[in-house]
């Protein structure tokens, strides 16, 4: 027997729960009746009328005002809650009201804006963000390099960042790629690999900032760093050799500079010492010349007063100065024009005297007396008319006139 067919001693297996009473048919409940029952319950909750007709049946199917008010209140509450948002310290908010930008920028804190009317765009403000780029690029000498760069930037104008460009981050990426390729294509490979990285990074930063200003993105580029620059794998060993050679060159230059720093001060000191010695000699010569001139002027004054006496005094002083510095002795023999030459230094040397090598003027009185005793037999006696001396008796010590 089917599940919905009557039977079983007057019992019905209808799944809707209805039974056959008095032999009448009963179908599934009506949808309209279910809606009316729900409306009655909501109407009781909000104090509305039950909406029953005088005959006990539903009339017209009208929904109560209390239900409408409750639904509207729930919608308004949800709408109000949706408008609450928070702006962090490093963020700013840009509000669009029906697509028009409000002049006021939303500061950090808790705020509310009517949803579906205002569109709030939260932007990171003055917070440093970093983007990295790596790609193979062609240099001006037609070599390929793998360049890796990092770009650090901040958002300085939230309004321009939200309004001026549809995708400011994408614009930054495209502009950075263009600036990097332009800078790499304007440099040689050895410059990029060795000493030209800093200049290339500055070039990229300036060019990228000009692009951002032209697009009015509100982005300011803070720093561009070249993190890596490598030649192709096939030629990398050769470039490593070049880099080592440059390092050796720099090391040799440092050693040469160190040597120069050591030698140059010494040479300058020697030159300064020579200059000081020359200045001292000049001052000495000038002082001596001035003294000689002053002494000559004084002698001239005395000579003008007594010429004969001054001339004789000058002659005596000159002869005394000459004779005291000589080791020779000249003996004037009386009664003639002959003059005896006595080599005093040779005589003292033969005698083994301790005054050998010294000046005769520095000899002691006893030494001179001994010498005079030795010379007395060779000199003519006082009163003798002979003007000759027996030179054969003189020792062979280099005598002469």
Quick recap of the structure?
47% of the residues lie in helices and 18% in strands. The chain has helices at residues 31-45, 65-82, 158-163, 168-185, 189-193, 197-215, 236-305, 307-324, 344-350, 365-375; strands spanning 6-7, 11-12, 84-87, 91-97, 100-101, 109-112, 118-124, 129-138, 144-155, 219-230, 328-332, 339-343. Residues 15-25, 48-61, 354-358 and 380-401 have low confidence and may be disordered.
Description of the molecule:
This protein is α+β, with helices and mostly antiparallel strands. 47% of the residues lie in helices and 18% in strands. It is built from ten helices and twelve strands. The strands form five sheets. A three-stranded antiparallel beta sheet has the order 5-4-7. Strands 8-9-10 form a three-stranded antiparallel beta sheet. A two-stranded antiparallel sheet has the order 1-2. Strand 4 and strand 5 form a beta hairpin. Helix 4 packs antiparallel against helix 6 and helix 7 packs across helix 8.
Q: What's the topology here?
A:
Layout: E1 6-7, E2 11-12, H1 31-45, H2 65-82, E3 84-87, E4 91-97, E5 100-101, E6 109-112, E7 118-124, E8 129-138, E9 144-155, H3 158-163, H4 168-185, H5 189-193, H6 197-215, E10 219-230, H7 236-305, H8 307-324, E11 328-332, E12 339-343, H9 344-350, H10 365-375
